[in-house]
Design goal:
With about 260 residues, the chain is an all-alpha fold. The chain has one domain. The chain contains eight helices and no strands.
Length: about 260
């Protein structure tokens, strides 16, 4: 009996580890596919005589379409088809009044979360890293005017579909909803490392801060069972950051760190 329990226990642990590994791999694959597609697009533009360095507007648009749209959406769809799950695995419907109230509450909580995270992390003396978009926007503020609507059309829907709908959904199957929210938030925050500049310490500080609003997105999905809700919260959160940065830059003030 002792040997059987040991085998069963090992199988149980391996099953959970496999689920966590698959969920992480899905998120990483989505990111890698997006980066590869963006690199190929940049090479094509260069071969076509386009000076990519002087076209930040074009670079941002192409990146949004290929990463959040094609890569994230494509990997999510591929995973669902591979497991023969169908779109019902990621519940989506027109938001009800209750859903809209959840969006409003989540929007406020996301900013409270990032503020609390910033205070907590910076109190240790760590300095958050800057987002590459923030650096691009400093040189070409007009790209922010594209990022505001793109938050609702591509960023929010694409990232939430992959990281909440698929990654969090896979973790939830084995670990339950609470662990699903927490682990998916860790994965989601961590994949932003490629979008940050600076040293490793600063990048880790920013990832730690991003974990807090990520918890809000994941919790909203679990509580409403509607992927549209976290997508709207995420989109509104990002759009506010982009619009706020644009106002700062136009006013001539020192731009805040974009998280």
């Amino acid at each position: 009996m002792g040997g059987t329990l040991s085998t069963d226990g090992s199988g149980w642990i391996l099953h959970r580890l496999r689920a966590a590994g698959v969920a992480t791999a899905v998120g990483v694959v989505g990111l890698v596919v997006g980066l590869v597609l963006s690199a190929v697009a940049a090479l094509v533009l260069l071969l076509g005589g386009v000076d990519v360095q002087s076209q930040p507007f074009l670079v941002i648009v192409v990146s949004l379409i290929l990463v959040q749209g094609v890569a994230f959406g494509g990997v999510a769809l591929g995973y669902l088809r591979y497991r023969d799950l169908g779109w019902g695995y990621v519940p989506a419907r027109s938001p009800s009044i209750r859903d809209l109230l959840a969006v409003l509450a989540g929007y406020v909580l996301a900013f409270l979360g990032v503020s609390a995270g910033t205070l907590l992390i910076t109190s240790t003396g760590a300095e958050p890293a800057e987002n590459q978009i923030g650096e691009i926007a400093t040189q070409s503020p007009d790209v922010l005017l594209v990022l505001v609507p793109a938050s609702f059309l591509l960023i929010g829907p694409g990232e939430e579909l992959l990281f909440r709908g698929v990654v969090q959904g896979r973790i939830r199957e084995v670990f339950g909803p609470v662990a699903g929210v927490v682990l998916a938030s860790v994965i989601f925050a961590a994949i932003h490392v490629t979008a940050l500049t600076g040293g490793l310490g600063g990048r880790l500080a920013t990832i730690a801060i991003l974990f807090f609003p990520s918890l809000v997105f994941g919790s909203a999905y679990e509580l409403t069972d509607n992927i549209v809700v976290p997508a709207l919260i995420h989109a509104a959160y990002n759009a506010t950051l982009f619009a706020g940065l644009y106002v700062y830059l136009q006013s001539g003030g020192a731009p805040p760190t974009l998280l």
